[in-house]
Design goal:
mainly alpha
């Protein structure tokens, strides 16, 4: 088993550990701290995204001289210790401070993605991105199931102890790869160069498109379990976690289709998948359990195919030596979208009810569909706007 296998395995462990509470924060805050305000939950999940967004460019700057695996080994030590601290505190604001500090360290694992792609031939990019996407999808399944178990059967503090176990596994894998000599050698010329990397052409334009897409995709995440419990009150939190994970399961079918289907390019095209996503989100917002299940299936197919295609466009526009730099810029746009989405979801649910995020998400997919053709146009308007507005901030 080579470096690629272990990097993908580390990604799987990180996703499982870091997403297990994501659909359950409303229950977690209510049971542990007595906080039931949806806007508070939305603000907290938005703060997570903001901290991750600001942290990754820092790690991307630090990683070049020292090597990715060595950096990850020590950042996960910090993350694990802070996970344990989160499990021990009963003070709400201490939990905020400790958990956000934990996210600073955990954000470093996102460097695995560009580090992996550096060693993959360009013709294998789409396949590798598809595998990573399915790993992330099934990581969400396992994370949702573990989170449901933690809330249903164990003391709440155990959720963060499970996260710490994930960090220990990542530390062990990094140390093992370094000892075994599988770490990719650092390029001396790159590590000694004082010339700053410049963002590749088209990255900011793609980032703006991904901001809209991620805002729409994550709008329905924080309160879906609460929504399902409202429309199907006889179902427990464990069943709700499986319904939440349906799109991740559909991703496996989509990956098989991408590998095996000789025809059917239309079924994975961006335009078709955005239309399918709009329909799936509308069905989920109708409030009927049967239609919601169908909408989850449709949304799962659209979400997987769109994520793979948009991610592959990052590396089409970049070069291997700039992967980490460019990806850190794209990650800022993604996290701004998720941040706005989570906070907006909390405000919408508090003001207008649990179904509202589905309608806003559907409108966001429609807007992504309208903007996508501009990405391929020569010097599109929003690319010029991005280059003009971000040149001083994101060099």
């Amino acid at each position: 088993m080579g470096l690629k296998f272990w990097l993908i395995a580390m990604t799987a462990v990180a996703v499982v550990a870091d997403t297990m509470l994501l659909p359950f924060y409303p229950q977690y805050f209510a049971e542990r701290f007595g906080v039931t305000d949806p806007e508070h939950i939305g603000l907290y999940t938005a703060a997570i995204c903001l901290v991750a967004m600001l942290s990754l460019p820092l790690w991307a700057k630090l990683v070049r001289p020292g090597g990715t695996l060595r950096l990850l080994m020590w950042t996960q030590v910090g993350a694990g210790l802070l996970c344990i601290a989160c499990s021990l505190t009963d003070n709400l604001w201490a939990f905020w401070a400790l958990s956000l500090a934990m996210i600073v360290f955990k954000a470093s694992y996102l460097l695995i993605y560009p580090y992996l792609m550096e060693g993959v031939a360009e013709e294998d990019h789409a396949n590798t991105i598809g595998v990573l996407s399915i790993v992330v999808h099934f990581g969400h399944i396992a994370g949702a199931v573990l989170g449901g178990l933690a809330l249903a059967y164990w003391p709440l503090q155990h959720a963060f102890l499970l996260m710490a176990v994930g960090d220990v596994v990542q530390i062990a894998v990094c140390a093992g790869l370094i000892i075994a000599g599988l770490e990719r050698p650092v390029d001396p010329a790159a590590s000694q160069s004082t010339e700053p990397l410049r963002t590749s052409s088209g990255i900011h334009a793609l980032g703006l498109l991904m901001l809209v897409f991620y805002f729409s995709e994550y709008q329905i995440v924080p309160f879906f379990v609460e929504y399902w419990k409202q429309i199907a009150p006889g179902h427990g939190v464990q069943l709700a976690s499986w319904v939440y994970a349906i799109p991740a399961g559909v991703g496996l079918l989509a990956l098989w289709f991408n590998h095996r289907a000789v025809r059917g390019d239309w079924a994975r095209s961006i335009v078709f998948c955005l239309l399918l996503g709009v329909a799936g989100l509308v069905l989920q917002g109708c409030g009927k359990p049967g239609w919601v299940l169908l909408g989850r299936l449709m949304f799962g197919w659209a979400s997987f195919q769109l994520t793979v295609r948009l991610d592959s466009m990052i590396f089409e526009r970049s070069t291997p030596e700039a992967y980490a730099h460019d990806y850190s810029k794209i990650n800022i746009y993604q996290n701004v979208g998720v941040l706005m989405s989570y906070y907006g979801a909390g405000w919408l649910v508090g003001q207008h009810g649990l179904a509202t995020p589905f309608w806003l998400a559907a409108a966001g997919f429609a807007l992504t569909l309208l903007l996508f053709p501009l990405l391929s146009a020569p010097r599109p308007f929003f690319q010029r706007l991005a280059n003009r507005s971000t040149a001083d901030v994101l060099p």
